[in-house]
Amino acid sequence: MKKILLSIMIMAVMGITAKVQAQCTLQNIANIKIQVVGVPTPGPGANQCTVTFNAEFDIATNSGFKNLYFHSWLAADYPVVPIFNCGGSTPAVNPGTATQLGTVVDAVGKSFMDLGFTNVPTTGALNVVQPLTFATIYPEDNTVVLTQPSNSPGLTAEKFFNGTNDHYTVKNIKVILNQPCGGPVSVKTDIWGSNQNAPKPAAQCYVCAQPIFFNDPTITGFKNCASPSRQYTLGISTVDPSAKNITYKIYVDVNSNGTLEIGTDELAFSSAPISLSSGTPFSSGGPVSLPPPYSNTQPYSEYGYLILVEGPSLSNSVVKFFPHPAGCIGLPVDFKSFTATRSKSNVMVKWVTSTEINNSGFAVERNVNGTWEQVAFVPSQAPNGNSSSDLSYQ
Length: 394
Fold this sequence. Notes:
Structural class: mainly beta
Distance between the termini: 101 Å
Number of helices: 2
Order of helices and strands: HEEEEHEEEEEEEEEEEEEEEEEEEE
Shape: elongated
Oligomer: single chain
């Protein structure tokens, strides 16, 4: 009888342990995308670089998170003695302190980003966005300065269930790197989670030294004002001598915010697989156009381009924004026909538009002795200036 009771107790304990472990799992960090926002700027100190970036990633759905933290180092600064033992068992342990993380955002040899979320919401309904709350004080060691909206302007974060995982999006993460600007940046990141509400929650699950690269592969190029079709030039390179298969995709930035939002921004082109290494960079070979209607039809032709480079051997995907060139302004109207017929001293002008975008109307001008003067203004017939149907004027 005692053996039976002991067996039942062991099974119960094993069941409770399995349940606790299941509530805190970080074994599936996937689909990482990194986009450097704007241009990195030197400073504030010598041999430093200020970088703002966006990050997206998937984590296996987890109903137990109360706290979720990220610590990133330059790869060369990663602690010789890691905070967590990711190579063996994963018991609950105390997370890092100022010894590994530093007490200022730009401490030499320490982490350059320490970012956390508190009261992480449970997995919601499909595609329902849930805002995340940033931690402002690091519970294990309040001398550690966290990356938060007060020192990272415009910082936002959210997650949603995409049908398989929780998809996290964090925008405008401002960091200071202890290296000059220019070239790729190799990073290692620890991630830990806890379902404890204790004043100092233990790290119950963790990922060690997750490799991440800023700007490798490096994307270069621009969008130009070619007419009648907009064009772009693209180059992709890497510092890695080993060949890797990549593809690139081009999205049109339909909401004009300079940030890739798959599902909102429209995919215009997907490349065939490309073999990339430090000795074999990729080049578009000159200006090329997106397939119709993206390069020659408004409004698509007036949007910026978002370039996504990804591949199975990359630790993370890289995104680059090609803005629509300043001063490159297309007409808000597509003309289907335009005719002018003279009758003695009168001229009958007729035209038909197929699309109008934010159009207030048409100024009709004539040339008198080399000088153009307006003789009439014909208001747009399009409701609020917008139409995708044929409209006739005279």
